[in-house]
């Protein structure tokens, strides 16, 4: 009875656990960066590095303001990045996407007027979005999710035309931006010409030419917008007029001749009117732009998502990243060949020789992973890599990992990582750690990933072990996925006592007495403190005494632990090799499916081209058939019979040669159960129903039934 009761209790516990996980999966929220422990995971550093992959000002702002997405948005962003990667060198034109949001916000908040350069930037943005929208529409078949960003966008043709008519390519206001400005600019030009001509005439007078500064004869200079002559300072009286400036040496005075002062005053007044009219136009254009601010923001938001997909593509190509599959919480986290993004960057920059890839699992059948092993062996790095993978997927970004990696959409990450003492709060390392953990426990659940570095450390080992065990038990009860590292021996035993917990260790090379940085899931590790102390050169007498002080009973336990670890390492390597083969096979199958779809689409295009070519060649034949038909109508008897027999043969040959005739035969022969290929969806599917009257097919596409036009389908051949 007791055994049956225990089984029932276990079954009920499992049922409740599944119910909790399913309920958590149903929630779709967008967590904050704080909730994803972005600071503890060095996101600020990474964000600045990712921004270099943006090709436009709009893209750079999008990266720097990137925030975690809700579930649907994260999946969509990852899918768009995969599409961008599949397009290869065929990349969307985004480099001219200037960022209009900042200038518009400043104009709105401070009542400022947009300058010509800012308005020119807005014009460049509007033109770039038009080009980008056309590119997206042209790539609907190959990148449907990206193309969706270009649909239903607000049209701002009137604003674009207004700015196009008012600004030239340099950002100057055009002379013909308004009738008044055109008139003023003509007046300004005419006055400038008259003044220059008159000043040159004065300079050429014999009594003036001799008093001009050496090398300045006949030259007209400008000072404060006034036309002046460079006159020797000692001869100022020879050229009546107004002195506007002196040279640095004081030997030359710049004089506006008296005869042009009135014209100069006139020109200054006209220029003031020009500036007033330009300012009026800028105010008007700014007001018009602000009237469309909301639509411009919508447009910028869509275009920014295109840029983010391309940032992900360029980052993935540079660092051999993959877009992880989005897993359910029950499936858990699976990282294959993962590298910490900052270390991958250091390798790229030549600052590191290489990074040991990380293979890590957290989920079915265990939710708590306890990592043990020597210091500097990679425990903390493993946790940070896992946390960053969760953050990157939530942000919709690819990650430096291999194919076959799976990452759930966690709604939070609680990270107690590193020695971050709360100096302002006068907290010790231990106390600061407890404060961070306590704050995180309020969010504990199936979709919150816990990363606990040196669990139980910073206090008495017995207290630390008790507290650490109790905390892990509590997290297990809350279904919270957890990765914890520790040096405390008793915590290694935790995973042996709970089916939903597992040990892991960073591998240690006993020959070199150095960590290999490989994480072995399923085997507890040893701290190797004495071995490391020996490598670091501590005196032999100290080491001998330390070994003598180690409890004798630990020798047998250490040997047993070593045997267990060796067996688990071999098992893990075998599992990893098998998973590698599965991942490579899946990746190759996906590549072949893409190639097959491209071939089928290419076949359709070739059929269209062949039909056009054939129609050209059959034209004269049809003309001949028409001529023979007329002749046959004019004759009788044996001659007519011969002609009609020949006409029958010719018409049959034309039908047999025609691609369109084969197309007609294909459509008429379609029936329930046949397989067809849909180029628009790039999928092979089975026909459920044919409605020739309406020209429609009902097909099974994956798990969905949908209706398509018969002319959308082509014959499917096994490739």
From TrEMBL:
SMART domains reported in the protein's UniProt record: MUTSac, MUTSd
MF term (GO), any: endonuclease activity
Keyword Nucleus: no
UniProt cross-references to Pfam families, sorted A to Z: MutS_V
Coiled coil: 582-609
Keyword tags: ATP-binding, Coiled coil, DNA-binding, Endonuclease, Hydrolase, Nuclease, Nucleotide-binding
Protein EC: 3.1.-.-
GO BP: mismatch repair; negative regulation of DNA recombination
Occurrences of domain DNA mismatch repair protein MutS core (ranges): 41-346
Residue ranges annotated for the DNA mismatch repair proteins mutS family domain, each copy included: 366-551
The protein's enzyme class: hydrolase
PANTHER family assigned to the protein according to its UniProt record, in alphabetical order: OS10G0509000 PROTEIN, OS10G0509000 PROTEIN-RELATED
Protein name from the UniProt record: Endonuclease MutS2
Organism expressing this protein natively: Rohdeia mirabilis
Gene label: mutS2
């Amino acid at each position: 009875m007791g055994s049956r009761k225990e089984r029932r209790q276990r079954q009920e516990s499992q049922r409740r656990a599944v119910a909790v996980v399913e309920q958590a999966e149903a929630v779709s929220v967008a967590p904050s960066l704080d909730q994803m422990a972005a600071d503890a995971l060095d996101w600020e550093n990474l964000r600045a590095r990712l921004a270099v992959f943006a090709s436009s000002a709009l893209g750079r702002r999008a990266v720097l303001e990137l925030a975690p997405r809700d579930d649907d948005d994260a999946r969509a962003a990852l899918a768009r990045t995969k599409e961008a990667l599949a397009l290869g060198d065929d990349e969307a034109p985004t480099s001219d996407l200037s960022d209009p949001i900042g200038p518009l916000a400043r104009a709105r908040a401070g009542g400022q007027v947009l300058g010509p350069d800012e308005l020119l930037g807005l014009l460049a943005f509007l033109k770039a979005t038009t080009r980008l929208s056309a590119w997206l529409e042209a790539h609907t078949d190959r990148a449907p999710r990206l193309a969706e960003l270009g649909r239903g966008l607000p049209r701002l043709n009137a604003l674009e035309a207004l700015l196009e008519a008012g600004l030239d390519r340099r950002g100057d206001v055009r002379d013909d931006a308004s009738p008044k400005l055109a008139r003023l600019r003509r007046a300004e030009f005419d006055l400038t010409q008259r003044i220059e001509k008159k000043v040159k005439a004065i300079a050429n007078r014999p009594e003036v030419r001799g008093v001009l500064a050496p090398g300045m004869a006949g030259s007209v200079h400008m000072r404060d917008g006034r036309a002046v002559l460079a006159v020797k300072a000692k001869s100022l009286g020879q050229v009546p007029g107004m002195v506007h400036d002196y040279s640095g040496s004081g030997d030359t005075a710049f004089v506006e001749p008296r005869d042009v002062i009135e014209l100069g005053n006139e020109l200054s007044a006209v220029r003031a009117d020009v500036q007033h009219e330009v300012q009026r136009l800028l105010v008007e254009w700014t007001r018009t732009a602000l009237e469309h601010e909301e639509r411009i923001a919508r447009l910028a938001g869509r275009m920014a998502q295109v840029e983010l997909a391309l940032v992900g593509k360029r980052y993935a190509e540079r660092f051999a990243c993959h877009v992880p599959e989005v897993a359910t919480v029950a499936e858990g986290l699976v990282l294959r060949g993962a590298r910490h993004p900052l270390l991958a960057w250091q390798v790229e920059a030549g600052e590191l020789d290489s990074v040991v890839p990380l293979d890590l699992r957290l989920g079915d059948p265990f939710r708590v992973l306890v990592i043990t092993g020597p210091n500097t062996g990679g425990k903390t790095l493993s946790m940070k890599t896992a946390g960053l993978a969760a953050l990157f997927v939530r942000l919709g970004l690819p990650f430096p990992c291999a194919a076959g990696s799976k990452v759930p959409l966690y709604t939070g990450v609680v990270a107690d990582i590193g020695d971050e003492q709360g100096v302002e709060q006068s907290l010790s390392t231990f106390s600061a750690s407890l404060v961070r953990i306590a704050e995180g426990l309020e969010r504990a659940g199936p979709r919150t990933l816990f990363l606990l570095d040196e669990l139980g450390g910073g206090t008495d080992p017995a207290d630390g072990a008790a507290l650490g065990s109790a905390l892990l038990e509590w997290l297990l009860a809350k279904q919270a996925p957890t990765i914890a590292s520790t040096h405390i021996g008793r915590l290694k035993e935790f995973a042996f006592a709970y089916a939903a917990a597992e040990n892991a260790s960073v591998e240690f090379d006993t020959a070199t007495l150095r960590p290999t940085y490989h994480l072995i899931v399923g085997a507890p590790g040893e701290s190797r403190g004495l071995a490391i102390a020996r490598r670091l050169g501590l005196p032999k007498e100290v080491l001998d005494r330390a070994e003598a002080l180690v409890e004798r009973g630990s020798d047998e336990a250490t040997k047993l632990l070593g045997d267990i670890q060796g067996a688990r390492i071999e098992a893990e390597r075998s599992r990893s090799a098998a998973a590698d083969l599965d991942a490579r096979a899946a990746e190759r199958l996906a590549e072949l499916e893409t190639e097959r779809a491209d071939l089928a689409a290419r076949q359709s295009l070739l059929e269209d081209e062949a039909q056009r070519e054939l129609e050209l060649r059959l034209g004269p034949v049809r003309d001949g058939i028409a001529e023979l038909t007329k002749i046959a109508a004019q004759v009788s008897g044996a001659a007519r019979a011969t002609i009609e027999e020949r006409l029958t043969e010719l018409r049959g040959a034309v039908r047999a040669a025609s691609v369109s005739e084969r197309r007609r035969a294909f459509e008429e022969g379609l029936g329930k159960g046949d397989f067809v290929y849909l180029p628009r969806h790039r999928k092979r599917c089975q026909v459920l129903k044919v409605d020739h009257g309406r020209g429609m097919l009902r097909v099974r596409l994956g798990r969905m039934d949908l209706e398509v036009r018969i002319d959308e389908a082509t014959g499917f051949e096994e490739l």
